[in-house]
Amino acid sequence: MKPLQLKKFTNEKLQERLLNLEKEVLNTKFDIKIGEIKDFTIVRKKRKEIARIKTILNDPLKPQIIEKPGEEIKEKAAKKAE
């Protein structure tokens, strides 16, 4: 899922998704070890999404939903001008 899509979720939804992804990573690793899954990139993709979610949860600007990239830069410039 893309970061802009993830930013639209509430913190509770993000934490729920984070727990589900962590469980999925463990299950996928187990399935790879026993030979049920041959595609090793699944774990990498899920870990990247976990990192994105953790980044968004720790972001101090999270309450502001940013619709367009670059809008954040305009907001910072406006604050500096004041």
Compile the SSE list and pairings.
Elements: H1 3-6, H2 11-34, H3 41-57, H4 71-81
Helix pairs in contact: 2-3
Describe this structure in words.
It is a single chain. The chain is mainly α. It has a single domain (3-81), classed as Helix Hairpins. It is built from 4 helices and no strands. The protein has helices spanning 3-6, 11-34, 41-57, 71-81. Helix 2 (11-34) runs antiparallel to helix 3 (41-57). The longest helix has 24 residues, at 11-34. The radius of gyration is 17 Å and the shape is elongated. It starts with a helix and ends with a helix.
For the structure shown, list the relevant keywords.
mainly alpha; Helix Hairpins; 82 residues
Number of domains: 1
In total, how many beta strands?
0
Level of helix content? 55-70%
Give the C-alpha Rg: 17 Å
What is the approximate shape?
elongated
Content-based structural category: mainly alpha
CATH class: Mainly Alpha
Tell me the CATH topology.
Helix Hairpins
What's the quick description here?
By secondary structure, the chain is mainly alpha-helical. Helix content is 68%, strand content 0%.
